[in-house]
Structure formats: structure tokens, C-alpha cells
Amino acid sequence: MRGAAIPQSLTALQPLNTITRTGLSNSRQVLNGVIQGGGARHASTVEHSPVLPAALIEPGVILRGYSGKEYTIQNVLQDRQNRQVYLARADKKMFVLKSLFEKDYNYSLPLQLRFNQSPYLRALRDTVPEQNMFVNEYLTDHLLNFAFKDVPLATHKRILRDTLRGLATLHSQNIAHLDVKANNIMIDYRETPEGIVVDRVQLSDLEDSTHIPPGQALSGLRASHRTSSPWR
To answer: Which of 19, 121, 182, 210 has the fewest beta carbons closer than 10 A?
Structure first.
């Protein structure tokens, strides 16, 4: 299933009309500080909003998405700096729910909606506004693990091709992904008697992207300066 359609209700989300650059979190404000017209100055880190850790959501809890779909939490995939990631089930399918800081949620929402039809980008499929969560489809694994599998050269080329297509899609809209790495390249595949069949390759973590207007530049930013556990 490539580029599954997003529920029409999501296209009416208010942040598409109300979000402005003044509504950025501390991390985005620092990022704006290193984007300069006619040149670039340097930065070494991106700070994060000083928010108290949120309580973990227990397995079995049901969250209702903006679309009306109900997601039952299965387990925690990641718990780091108030940005929890959960595995959830809805309509016999698996999804990944990722919580964000409120201002990062509002900043990223219109960007993600812009790309939710691309088969090469894992953009949101729903939101849980009360929890500041994005809902993504669950894909089988990431490239950091998949790279150790015995697959033909053509499969490796296909993964590289689709990843570059995802980057090209972002760049066509002057969007820079700030955390391109193997465990942010998601691969949906199946084990068959004939071997591994790759169905989809998508660049994920679009929350770590930003718009860079034409004529401006970003230089010296360490966008991925913390150790993180890979999640699917």
C-alpha cells in the first residue's frame, strides 16, 4: 500500500491557517537564529524546551485520534526527554504514536500535512491533539537493522533510490531534514519463500525538518547530538 490516503478531516486542521514562525519552541527559535540571509553563522547545539516529563501512557489505554479512529496502546517504544513513542493498534493495524512538545507539534503539523501523500516520506496519518501526538503507520524495520540482511544489490539500490526521492521531495519545497541516518530510513518488507520483498521505503522523523527560505543557509548545526534508541 503505497501513499495511503489521509482522512479528509485532517486537511481541515486549524493550525494550517494559524501557525506562524512566532509560535516556535525554544529549539526552533535557536534554529532560526542560525538561519541567516546572504550567509550563515555557526551553532553547535539545538536546545529543547524545559518541559517536565509527562507520565507514560499504560498499555491498554485507548486514545481517540482527530479522525475519530481509536488507538489502543500496546507498549512504549521510546521514552526520552518528554517525547514518548508508543506502539498502538487500531482496526487490526499497527501504528506508531509520537508525542511532541506543544509548540513543535504546532510547527510541524502543516509541514507534515504537505507531504502526507508522498510514498517516500513517513508523514502523519492522524493526530491525537489532546496529547500533542502524531500518528504514523508502522513499518517493519529501519535500515540500521535491515542492512545486515542478505538481499540482492538491486534491493540496496532501490532503498537508496527511494530515500533520495524522499529527500528530493522535501528539497523541492525548501525543506531540510536535519537528522538523516540509517534508523530514520524505514523499510516495510515481507519474508517470502523466494526471499525478502520490500514494499515501501520511507524517510521518517519529519519533525526534525525545517523550512529554509531561498537565499538563506544553515551552517554548523549539530542536529543529532544526543544518543537515541532506534524505534519503528
So the answer is: 182
